[in-house]
Amino acid sequence: MAIEPPPEALAELAAVVAPLRTAAPDLRWSGRESWHLTLAFLGEVDEQVVPELDTRLGRAAGRHTSQLLAIDGGGAFPSLARARVIWAGIRGDRPALAALAASIAAGARRAGAPPPDEGRKYRPHLTLARCKQPLDATQLTRPLAGFTGDDWTAASISLVSSQLGSGPPRYQELARWPLKPAPG
Known about the structure:
Helices cover 30% and strands 31% of the residues. It is an alpha+beta fold. The chain has one domain (2-170): Cyclic phosphodiesterase (Cyclic Phosphodiesterase, Chain: A, Alpha-Beta Complex), CATH 3.90.1140.
């Protein structure tokens, strides 16, 4: 389950990330077409649960309002000194985003597709690169730390399928549900 930033927001981030790719070509950089804000990772989903999952995720989306977000800052997991993942951050109403992510996870669990990452603290981000071996990403993430993109409205959530292979993962949107319009 994901929120997909608009092309303009992704273009802003791509301009910052381009020199980083050149500086660290050995990392597995994800393409801008795969950048999304994960709300809940579902793993393998049995085809039999898909109809109930569709219903429950639609209900969950309908209980939450659209979000004003921006791509903002960046860093590394689990730490800058031992990075395995380089990421761009998200600015917005974090409690509202966490509530949306929890609602999505609960709906998936009730449908029979429990998220394997349920219960972890929600940290909204876009994954930019993965490292085969832990590395010190302090210098690499410095340009991201000062980056602040323009605001955009997340008005829907998407069910996204990932196809893994020898290259970077490929993502395909399977379904989309609108969030409630924000008041005012």
